[in-house]
Write a structure and sequence with these properties.
The chain has 8 helices and 9 strands. It is an alpha/beta fold. It has one domain: Spore Coat Polysaccharide Biosynthesis Protein SpsA, Chain A. The radius of gyration is 17 Å and the shape is globular.
Length: about 240
């Protein structure tokens, strides 16, 4: 079975993002997958009207671009395509995902404080990790829905994750997508806890886990700091979450 791992990032990315990309590229080689990477040419696949309406809205542009590139690869004969966001860190390079019947999304355990100030973990899908096969009925539907929503929305009122995680979470309520708990996402609160070795939020997070993480999206857009100490983050994951 032929598999491609697909990624993209702008040419001016931070060094820590480059290190994350290297971890995914090496992982692809380890599992015997081909690796395809796009830099600034990534958005060339988008319709002109979509680009014009979303000037400067990189994450929303990427939400559709990744789907179109996946569709192209599958049309060229690739059996399955795995998408990983550029800020995804692989922590177990020997992990091999089980391939879905047709579609699978990452599953995040989102550590946060609720309105009362208490810690909670929300289990929900995310699109920083996705697998689609040629049999997927979901991919074309997502492409259609994404374009339909953006075509109709007021450009002054486009939420940052409108056709990304928010769309996937809304659809999951009805469609019950296959999810991959080993491909998680790290909230700012969890990262802070790992870096400071704060055991209380870490333990709350671990109690919710089904399986230790094999890769985690570091959610760079949600962090105030442009630089992330990747070694410290990796050490925290390996010490507290994979033990």
């Amino acid at each position: 079975m032929s598999t491609v791992v697909l990624q993209s990032a702008p040419s001016d990315k931070p060094e820590w993002v480059s290190e994350c990309i290297d971890s995914v590229s090496e992982w692809a080689s380890t599992i015997g997958a081909d690796y395809v990477y796009f830099d600034d040419r990534f958005f060339d696949v988008l319709p002109d009207w979509y680009q014009s309406k979303l000037v400067g809205r990189g994450p929303i542009l990427a939400d559709l671009a990744r789907l179109l590139h996946i569709k192209t690869l599958l049309a060229e004969g690739v059996d399955s395509v795995i998408w990983c966001d550029a800020d995804t860190l692989v922590v177990d390079a020997h992990w091999r995902p089980e391939f879905p019947l047709h579609s699978r999304f990452g599953e995040e355990y989102w550590l946060q404080s609720n309105k009362a100030g208490a810690l909670e973990v929300r289990r929900q899908p995310h699109n920083a990790f996705m697998i689609f096969s040629q049999a997927s009925p979901v991919l074309d539907f997502l492409i259609h829905t994404t374009q339909s929503l953006i075509r109709r929305v007021d450009p002054a009122h486009i939420a940052p994750q409108m056709v990304g995680p928010k769309l996937i979470k809304a659809l999951h309520t009805f469609a019950d997508f296959e999810l991959e708990p080993a491909a998680g996402a790290m909230s700012p609160l969890l990262m802070q806890a790992l870096l400071s070795r704060d055991s209380t939020p870490i333990n709350d997070f671990k109690k919710a886990l089904i399986t230790p993480p094999k890769m985690m999206n570091l959610c760079a857009s949600l962090h105030d700091e442009l630089e992330i100490d990747l070694k410290a983050v990796r050490d925290g994951i390996e010490t507290f979450l994979m033990s």
